[in-house]
Design a protein that fits this description.
It is built from 13 helices and 9 strands. The protein is of the alpha/beta class. The protein is globular, with a radius of gyration of 18 Å. The chain binds iron/sulfur cluster (2 copies).
Length: 333
């Protein structure tokens, strides 16, 4: 991934250790979901459709830490639901940082003004604010007016306080190359976001809005046109090979075991986006999942998936396996 040098070196060391240990499947980053409840109701969201008794639950910090320790991933992305609604979220972040995990706290930003005092800037910590487009587009995506302005104010506040602030933007088939360019230019140039993550929306079976997800051909065309003359300029939080993949210049097999998801329900099989059951441990997830049966061309539910949780690990592994690609990725750092 085009990541800060310190994190790149840490990841390089981690990958080398896996290679020397002949570990075929290992986690790069865990998607940790310590709750499913949220203070928004976005139309494309597959998480807030959980039953009421699940939405009420909050994962104890000890349980989350035990899962992260067991799998050994160097990076943790805390999502949900809205993680800032978890009463011990600051304690969870502190304990992860104390173990030198790189922590990305994903949020819609609405609670940041109220909760930011509980957090301290650290090279191991970044906010990841959900921004799906400029004002009208974002507010439409989250089904509530005024959220874009609140998110932008929260980003500025966090940056003023010395935090690293990243963003995560999901694109739908209502987007055009120009809407992609407009929002990325705004985040990159106007807001000075540290690193930006992009994703074509995945068609969650449970999402209320099923009409606006992108197909593979549409995704490739959208990013190819949007990237023209811009890709090198934008501080994108992805490896060059994953960006090639989004543009259709490369293709990979899905390696969803590299970015596994742990939630209130356990380790989710096979990935953050699909739920074919849960296991108690990462080891069990690895050993009891038929990984070869997932991915585009194998499972119809994967047909339109180009999500980073399935294909960024593939891109990172391909980068590690090639000197030329490693140099290219290092240049991005
Ligand atoms: S902010 Fe995130 S978790 Fe909350 S409803 Fe929207 S997509 Fe779902
Ligand atoms: S292609 Fe991989 S990441 Fe995407 S939905 Fe299928 S298993 Fe999950």
């Amino acid at each position: 991934m085009a990541m800060p040098l310190r994190l790149s070196l840490r990841m390089g060391g981690y990958l080398l250790k896996q290679k020397l240990g002949r570990h075929e499947k290992f986690p790069l980053l865990v998607e940790l979901e310590p709750l499913f409840a949220c203070n928004l109701k976005c139309a494309g969201c597959g998480k807030i459709q959980q039953p009421h008794d699940v939405l009420k639950q909050r994962m104890p910090v000890e349980q989350a830490m035990a899962a992260i320790e067991e799998c050994g991933a160097p990076m943790v992305s805390i999502a949900g639901g809205e993680p800032l609604m978890h009463p011990q979220i600051d304690e969870l972040v502190r304990q992860l940082i104390a173990r030198k995990k790189y922590v990305f706290l994903c949020t819609n930003a609405l609670l940041m003004p109220k909760k930011i005092e509980k957090f301290t800037p650290s090279r191991y910590f970044a906010w990841v604010v959900h921004i799906d487009g400029l004002r009208d587009r974002h507010d439409e995506s989250v089904c509530k007016e005024g959220v874009f302005d609140e998110a932008v104010a929260a980003i500025k506040m966090a940056k003023e306080r010395g935090f690293k602030v990243n963003t995560n933007t999901t694109f739908f088939n209502t987007d055009t190359p120009q809407t992609v360019i407009d929002v990325m230019n705004y985040l990159n140039d106007d807001l000075g976001i540290d690193q930006m993550q992009i994703s074509p929306a995945y068609a969650y079976e449970k999402a209320p809005d099923q009409e606006h997800f992108l197909g593979v051909t549409e995704t490739r065309e959208l990013f190819r046109k949007a990237f023209e003359g811009n890709r090198k300029r934008w501080r994108l939080n992805h490896s060059p090979l994953f960006l090639d993949f989004l543009e259709g210049k490369k293709d990979f097999a899905c390696t969803a075991w590299g970015i596994p998801s742990y939630s209130l329900l356990g380790w989710q099989r096979p990935c953050y986006l699909m739920a074919d059951g849960y296991t108690k441990t990462y080891k069990e997830l690895i050993e009891t999942t038929d990984w070869d049966s997932y991915g585009r061309g194998k499972d119809p539910r994967c047909a339109n998936c180009m999500a980073h949780c399935g294909y960024e690990p593939s891109a990172v592994l391909a980068t590690m396996g090639s000197l030329k690609e490693s140099i290219r990725a290092a240049r991005g750092s």
